[in-house]
Amino acid sequence: MAKPVTGPEIERLIQILARLPGLGPRSARRAALHLIKKKETLLGPLSIAASDALERVKECKTCGNVDTSDPCVICTDPRRENATLVIVEDVADLWALERANAINCKYHVLGGTLSPLDGIGPDDLNIASLVSRVSNPDNDIKEVIIAVNATVEGQTTAHYITDQLEGIDVRITRLAHGVPVGGELDYLDEGTLTAAIKSRSDF
């Protein structure tokens, strides 16, 4: 049996870091060692930031975003366009759209996608609150943009949401699929090329 090379505190730090996306045991050990070597400038501030986040961060009951306030800063921003609502799978997708600065609207985070094989049904996602939000005339929502991933689960979820919103006077759109900016046809998969052809527009 291999002898332990670190104390239990360091091992616990490594094990927690290894749970993060993109970090395996080896990467977690390197990250832990780097944090320990930079205790004053990294480990200390990280500990304080993590403690503050644990205490103050909450989920917005309106849209599902995470913030230190509820409603979140996006929902309470008067400069946002209220008539357009973008539906995303996860908070990471919301943040990605915000980084791109592509649209100035409000969002609704589903919290995942429908996946019967994984036991994730409509009641496990923020779909009921979405329908209630869109159908409320006080919100004055005119367009819903379904910005889910182009996966089987994502498209299944998109179709389900469309069915749930049927009968509500709102325009339902989805993100275009096809050739990315700067993309070369030779490097694209068949599904992307097919979607690009079907989604072609006037030049």
What does the radius of gyration come to? 22 Å
Proper CATH architecture of one domain? 3-Layer(aba) Sandwich
In terms of DSSP E residues, the strand content is: 5-15%
Which consecutive residue ranges, at least 5 long each, have pLDDT under 50? Answer: none
Helices, by number, come to 8
Structural class: alpha/beta
Through-space gap between termini: 68 Å
Helix content percent band? 40-55%
Q: Report the order of strands and helices.
A: HHHEEHEHEHEHEH
Query: Main β-sheet, in a few words?
Result: 4 strands, parallel
Shape: globular
Number of strands: 6
CATH fold-level topology of one domain: Dna Topoisomerase Vi A Subunit, Chain: A, domain 2
How are the strands of the largest sheet arranged?
Answer: 4-3-5-6
Mean pLDDT: 91
Describe this structure in words.
The chain is α/β, with parallel strands linked by helices. It has a domain of 109 residues: Dna Topoisomerase Vi A Subunit, Chain: A, domain 2, CATH 3.40.1360.10. It contains eight helices and six strands. The strands form two sheets. A four-stranded parallel beta sheet has the order 4-3-5-6. Strands 1-2 form a two-stranded antiparallel ribbon. It is globular. It starts with 7 loop residues before the first helix and ends in a 5-residue tail after the last helix. The mean pLDDT is 91.
